[in-house]
Specification:
- The protein is α/β, with parallel strands linked by helices.
- It has one domain (17-242): Rossmann fold, CATH 3.40.50.
- The protein is 33% helix and 23% strand.
- The chain has helices at residues 17-34, 52-68, 86-91, 146-156, 172-183, 188-192, 200-207, 239-242; strands spanning 40-41, 48-49, 75-79, 97-102, 113-117, 131-137, 157-168, 212-220, 225-232.
- The chain has a seven-stranded mixed beta sheet with strand order 5-4-3-6-7-9-8, sandwiched between helices.
- Strand 6, helix 4 and strand 7 (157-168) form a beta-alpha-beta unit.
- Helix 1 runs antiparallel to helix 2.
- The longest helix is centred in the first third of the chain and has 18 residues, at 17-34.
- The radius of gyration is 18 Å and the shape is globular.
- It starts with 16 loop residues before the first helix and ends with a helix.
Length: 243
């Protein structure tokens, strides 16, 4: 387990006009990539990413950015940031600091961004109440012990901090398996590693008693993906305020 503690300078976030520009640019890129019928090679010569995956990833990022902008002092932890750490790079203009954790995390060290290479196990290498926002995008379905991770997220969140989760729905299972095994538009190994698919009821059961209260749940990507926004309960607040 990592014992590394990183210190970060505080930097103010700019206005929200860059968000609209970023989303518009990603939508143009999505249209261009959807017209390509080839697989492409990424930076690592031994790693390949299927055609549809970057498009789906950008769709997830667009779901998350508006939630991040609600926090005036945004200290972000992105669990499972991926080899590209796209979310970290996307939110850099808006956050005070951001940390990405993944077994395949790229080497990032800027005044705002830091990455840590680590396997996602039951404990996160951070102190209590360290972050305003935690993101868990397309990760929950890969975890053998998801409830332990939800508990760890609650621990590292500040009181009233929020976690944003995306995870494939039950309806996505046959579609993703077809796209992976028959068409090759999604990575086969990634789909085989899926431990479970979720719906609203199973997500509510997962978060029950964790110290996190689900504020919002919706489906996106034509019902193939869940979006959950949950808040850490502030135990110091009076009971009437918490209701």
């Amino acid at each position: 387990m990592l014992n590394q503690v990183v210190r970060y300078p505080g930097i103010d976030a700019p206005g929200t006009d860059l968000l609209a520009e970023h989303i518009a640019r990603d939508r143009r890129r999505d249209r261009m990539e959807s017209c390509r019928a080839v697989r492409f090679r990424i930076q690592e010569p031994t790693v390949r990413e299927a055609l549809l995956e970057p498009i789906l990833r950008r769709m997830r990022v667009r779901q998350v950015l508006p939630v991040l902008l609600r926090h005036p002092e945004r200290c972000l932890l992105d669990i499972g940031c991926g080899w590209e750490a796209r979310l970290l790079k996307s939110v850099e203009p808006y956050v005070k600091r951001a940390v990405g954790v993944d077994f395949k995390a790229p080497d990032i060290a800027t005044p705002k961004l830091t990455s840590i290479t680590a396997t996602l196990v039951d404990e996160l290498p951070f102190p209590d109440a360290a972050f305003d926002v935690v993101t868990l995008l397309a990760v929950l379905e890969h975890l053998s012990h998801p409830r332990a991770m939800v508990g760890e997220i609650c621990r590292v969140l500040k009181p009233c901090g929020q976690v944003i989760v995306t995870v494939p729905s039950l309806a996505a299972k046959p579609v993703l398996e077809f796209l992976a095994h028959r068409v090759g538009l999604v990575n086969v190994a990634e789909i085989r590693d899926h431990k479970r698919y979720y719906d609203r009821k199973s997500l509510e059961a997962l978060f029950a008693g964790s110290g996190l209260t689900i504020d919002r749940h919706c489906y996106f990507q034509l019902g193939m993906n869940n979006l959950v926004v949950a808040t850490r309960v502030d135990e110091t607040a009076p009971a009437l305020v918490r209701r």
